[in-house]
Amino acid sequence: MKSWFSWLPLTLFLAVIWILLADIPLGLGTLVFALVAALIIVLMSRRLRPFLAKPRRLWVMLKLAATVLADTFQSNTWALGLILKYPKTHIRPGFVTIPLSLRDPHGLAILASIINYAPGTVWAGFPESGDSVELHILDLDPNTDWVAYIVERYEKPLKEIFE
Predict the structure, then answer these.
(1) Is the domain of 29 the same as that of 75?
(2) Which pTM value belongs to this model?
(3) How many domains does the chain have?
(4) Which residues cross the membrane (predicted)?
(5) Which has more pLDDT, 6 or 84?
(6) Do 109 and 38 fall into the same domain?
(7) What is the rounded distance in angstroms from the CA atom of residue 66 to the CA atom of residue 46?
(8) What is d(CA 48, CA 117) in angstroms, rounded to the nearest whole number?
(9) Range(s) of the domain holding residue 109
(10) Measured between alpha carbons, how far is 70 from 68 in angstroms, rounded to an integer?
(11) Residue 107 counted as domain residue
(12) What is the pLDDT of residues 124-137, one digit of tens each?
């Protein structure tokens, strides 16, 4: 019975997305096709996932989401200001290596997404050892401790959620 609940929500979600994106009149045929297609996709893709994520601590997830939203807004505002003042500003791009202790692949994927959401930062490299990540920063301020920033704001909550 437990396996039913692992694929049913994703199947329903994909069917709803299909119906919304298909832009065709909703009828019984559309509904049946969406459900069957979603079910086939979910069942076929189950073998591609070595293990399922088991996130915990909803409160930490909510705090992390709020942090990411605030940081993304702040970064977008900063990038807009940089673009508007472009000829007059001196941009100092550079790379930073951030040591990681997060090992869960789901947490690492979310960390990569968080870093890439904000304009001005890009996940530039991840060695096979998985003990660090290379970031490209558009304007590398020498006064900013990027290691502490990434570890405290993003990696630490992700470790609480996934490990």
Answers:
(1) no
(2) 0.72
(3) 2
(4) 12-44
(5) 84
(6) no
(7) 31
(8) 26
(9) 58-162
(10) 5
(11) yes
(12) 888 888 789 999 98
Q: List, for residues 14-63, the tens digit of each pLDDT value.
A: 899 988 888 888 888 889 999 999 989 888 887 777 677 778 888 999 99
74 and 40 assigned to the same domain: no
User: How is the chain classified by DSSP, letter by letter?
Assistant: -HHHHHHHHHHHHHHHHHHHHH-S---HHHHHHHHHHHHHHHHHHGGG-SS------HHHHHHHHHHHHHHHHHHHHHHHHHHHTGGG-----EEEEEE-----HHHHHHHHHHHHHSTTEEEEE--TT-SEEEEEESS--TT--HHHHHIIIIIHHHHHHH-
Specify whether 75 is located in the same domain as 146. yes
Token duo for residue 162: 């996934």
Report if residue 53 sits inside a domain: no
Whether 18 and 68 share a structural domain: no
Residue 1 has pLDDT above 70, yes or no: no
